[in-house]
Amino acid sequence: MSSVAITTKPKGFDLKAFLANNGALVGLAVLCLALFIATPRFLTAANLVNVGIQVSTIAVMAFGLTFVIVAAGIDLSVGSVAALSAMVSSYWATTANLPGAWSIVVGLAVGAACGWVTGAMSAYGKLPTFIASLAMLTIVRGLTLVVSDGRPIATSESVSFLGSDLGVIPVPIIVLVLSALVAGFVLNYTVIGKNAFAVGGNTEAARLSGIPVKRVLMTVFIISGVFAALSGMILAGRLDSAQPTLAAGYELDAIAAVVIGGSSLSGGVGRISGTLVGALVLAVIRNGLNLLSVSAFWQQVVIGLVIAVAVGFDVFRRKNVRH
C-alpha cells in the first residue's frame, strides 16, 4: 500500500491583509517620505521633537476615547472635559494652595467625575452616547466659564511641569509614551479591555454571557474622562495657563485619530498603537502643511478629506468581513 505525502503550500505575503491591518502605518511612512522630499526641514531633529510635542495632547485624549469607541460608543465631551479639568486643577492650586501633585490628582478626579456622569446618562438614563456626550460637552464647557469667570488662570508648578522639558526630552513626549503603555496594557490584557471588546462586538451576546454591560459603559467613559483630563493639563502646562477655550474642537481630532488608526465606529475593533499612529498622521499632515506654508483654511479641508477616506476605508473593510 503506497503512501501519499501531503504537502501544504507555504502562504506567501498577503499584501491585502497587511494593508487592512496596517494601512495607517503605511500611510504615515509614505506621508513622511513625501514631506521629506518636499521639504528637507521635515526630518530634522528639532522638527520631529516639535511633532512629538504637538501630537501628545491629541494622542493622550484619543487613547481614552479608544475605549469608548471599542465599546461601540462615542464621547464628544473630551475637549470640554480637558478644559474643565485643567481649569479646576489650576483654580484649586491658586486658591486652596494645594501642595505639589495634588493639583494633578484634582484634575484627574474631575475628568473621572465627568466621565462617570456621561456614562450614567448613557447606561442608566438610556440616552445614546452621542446625545449624552453632546450634552456633557455643553454643560462642561459652561462650567469651565463659570469656574474661570471667562478668564485664564495660571497653572500650578506641577501642571506646568507637564508642559516643560526634562533635560533634553520634553515631558509631554514622556507622558505620551507612558500613557500609551498603560492604555495598551489595560485594553489588551485586562478584564476591562476584554469586556469593552465584547460589548462593542455584540452588546446582546455580551449581556447574555453575563458581562455587566452598564458597568462596562460606565468604566470606559470614566477612562475617557481621565485621559481627557491628563491631555488638558498637558496643554495647560505648555501654555502656563488654563484658558476657558482650552482644547476647543479637540474632540474631533481625537475621534479622527482613533478612526484613522483602524478602530471601527461600530465597535469591537481598536488598538492603542493604531490610535497613536492615527494621531501622528494628523500631526504630521499639519506640521508638513505648515512647513509648506499652506493656508490654515486649506489645512482643514485636507484633514476633513483624510477623515472621510479613513471612515470610508473602515466601511469597506467591514463589508468585506461580512462577505
Automatic annotation (TrEMBL):
Main location per the UniProt record: membrane
Residue stretches spanning the membrane: 23-43, 55-88, 100-120, 127-147, 167-187, 216-236, 268-285, 297-316
Database matches in InterPro entries: ABC_transp_permease
Keyword Transport listed: yes
Keywords: Cell inner membrane, Cell membrane, Membrane, Transmembrane, Transmembrane helix, Transport
Subcellular location, record wording: Cell membrane
Membrane disposition: Multi-pass membrane protein
Keyword Transmembrane carried by entry: yes
Name of this chain's protein: Ribose transport system permease protein
Organism: Paeniglutamicibacter psychrophenolicus
